[in-house]
Design goal:
4-stranded mixed β-sheet; 2 helices; 4 strands; alpha+beta; about 20% strand
Length: about 100
């Protein structure tokens, strides 16, 4: 996947192009499903996993694209988080205090 900034740029005269990378909502057991141009790339547990999937798809140096909504759409939950454990809670839901 070569960077195609022209395709990824929003164009007010055309229908917006969806981001080529989708990171799904965090799963209950942790991790997020990553798709690249509609094809499953795998389950990411960290930003490094997402970057590795992008590298394998042909996009080197992908760190700079993680926060660019023209490239990556983060669905459900906060971007760059990979589990559903609320802040201040341990792995089993107990409050850390």
């Amino acid at each position: 996947m070569q960077p195609d900034h022209e395709q990824a740029q929003p164009d007010t005269d055309r229908t917006p192009v969806p981001a080529p990378v989708t990171v799904g909502r965090p799963a209950g057991a942790g991790g997020r499903r990553v798709t690249i141009r509609g094809r499953s790339a795998g389950l990411a547990h960290s930003d490094a996993d997402v970057v590795e999937f992008l590298r394998r798809a042909g996009l080197p140096d992908a760190w700079e694209y993680l926060d660019d909504p023209r490239w990556v759409e983060w669905q459900g939950g906060r971007p760059r988080t990979y589990d559903t454990t609320p802040p201040g809670h341990g792995d089993h839901g107990e409050v850390i205090g």
